[in-house]
Specification:
The complex is a heterodimer of chains A (196) and B (207).
Chain A: H1 3-13, H2 24-29, H3 34-66, H4 72-94, H5 96-102, H6 106-109, H7 113-124, H8 129-157, H9 169-183, H10 188-195
Helix pairs in contact in A: 1-8, 3-4, 3-7, 3-8, 4-5, 4-7, 7-8
Chain B: H1 2-6, H2 22-27, H3 32-56, H4 65-87, H5 89-95, H6 106-116, H7 121-151, E1 153-155, E2 165-167, H8 182-204
Helix pairs in contact in B: 3-4, 3-6, 3-7, 4-5, 4-6, 6-7, 7-8
The chains are: A mainly alpha (196), B mainly alpha (207).
């Protein structure tokens, strides 16, 4: 698959939140207002791109030569946890304003299943290094897109009257479901028409 | 003691009340058999990690406790993954990457941190069983709603001359296919959550 194909696939067709249900906790948790959605979105794009590149390197340069691919899950989760820690410390040193914007979202990312998900999926699809990086980046963009849309919907919902049992998480799920319905317009046929 | 077990079933049901561990819950709830498989995997990992965390709670330095918990959990997940690949390959294919994603299932780390690291072995085991069974029940409920209405079937394990699929007359010819798709999962969870909220307020006496 070409790199453009990978981007379209992960941003729209296999959107992590709306078709694969990866990263639902932050989707519901930090989508209350647009500002925090943007912060979380950028943090996820950043960590996802890095994580998929690094886990590609570890899988292909360490796990395969040593024939210990069954340790994949343990290695990946540890790499991601330390990467998040490392990124947090680096940003804090290099750019305090950026740290103030993203800081509180970074620790939450370790247990975001979308990050481990992209690492495992990129290995499963057997992408090369560049492909893995692009897949991670575009999955992050897809996550950002869904989170941003959701947060604008929820800011509006706050002003509307909602039946009492549906308030909060419940209506968020139902709105998410309707959004997923809209995303179903993006499918494999669309990809074929676009890039042949 | 028995309360440690039953609280996970309804009062603190991980899916509907605490709203944790939803990613796998939604992704694998298209068929009842997948829900059962996922539930079994989660119960096993939860039980293993709660036992180990509870036994090791005095040896793990507090500063590195989260990474230690993650390593314990990841080891059990690897065991489940390899066992599923070996003995139930179709189930393993259906669940795909979600078996490995049990690692980041918030319920498991949540119980290790909030419960097993502070309580005795016996209580932790009961807590793990209760939470695990509660998770499975929640998953089963979502899967039943989605499969019965969305495909008109109930898929179980094939046994003897029973091929594993129950077809429901009337529904199987014209199912509401939208519920079997991604959007259906979110809608079903949203409505179930509303139902639980409604029951909660009714129990308290105010409407």
């Amino acid at each position: 698959m070409t790199y453009v194909g990978i981007i379209i696939t992960f941003v729209f067709i296999e959107n992590f939140i709306l078709t694969k249900f990866l990263g639902l906790c932050p989707f519901i948790g930090v989508s209350r207002n647009v500002e925090s959605a943007v912060g979380m979105g950028f943090a996820v794009i950043f960590v996802m791109s890095l994580a998929s590149l690094i886990t590609w390197a570890i899988y292909n340069l360490i796990l395969i030569p040593l024939n210990i691919t069954f340790l994949q899950t343990i290695t990946f989760i540890l790499v991601i946890a330390s990467l998040v820690q490392f990124v947090e410390m680096t940003i804090q040193k290099i750019s305090p304003p950026l740290y103030r914007a993203l800081g509180i979202y970074l620790p939450l990312i370790t247990t975001n299943c979308a990050i481990l998900g992209i690492a495992l999926i990129a290995v499963q699809y057997e992408y090369d290094a560049m492909g893995s990086f692009i897949a991670g980046f575009s999955a992050g963009v897809g996550f950002f897109l869904a989170l941003l849309l959701m947060s604008t919907i929820r800011e509006r919902l706050d002003l509307e009257w909602v039946p009492k049992p549906f308030r909060g998480v419940s209506i968020a799920f139902i709105s998410g479901g309707l959004m997923a319905l809209a995303f179903m317009a993006f499918d494999k046929a669309l990809l074929r028409n676009l890039i042949g | 003691m028995i309360k440690e077990f039953t609280k996970g079933l309804i009062k603190e049901n991980p899916i509907f009340i605490i709203v944790l561990g939803l990613c796998p819950a939604l992704a694998v709830s298209t068929q009842v058999v997948n829900a059962l498989g996922m539930g079994a995997g989660v119960i096993f990992v939860l039980l293993g990690s709660n036992i180990f965390v509870s036994l090791l709670k005095n040896f793990i330095p507090p500063r590195v406790r989260i990474p230690s918990y993650i390593v314990i959990i990841a080891s059990f997940v690897t065991v489940v993954d390899l066992l599923m690949k070996a003995y139930t390959p179709t189930l393993s294919d259906n669940l795909g990457v979600f078996v490995q994603l049990i690692v980041v299932n918030c319920i498991i780390l949540g119980r290790a941190e909030a419960y097993a690291s502070k309580n005795t072995l016996g209580r932790s085991v009961l807590d793990a069983l209760g939470m695990g069974v509660g998770f499975t029940l929640g998953l089963l409920l979502i899967a039943l709603a989605r499969e019965v209405l969305g495909a008109g079937t109930i898929t179980l394990f094939p046994m003897g001359n029973f091929n594993g699929t129950i077809r429901i007359p009337g529904l199987v010819e014209s199912p509401a296919r939208v519920l079997a798709l991604a959007t259906g999962a979110l809608l079903v969870v949203g409505y179930f959550k509303a139902l639980f909220n409604w029951m909660e307020t009714r129990k308290k006496g105010g409407a």
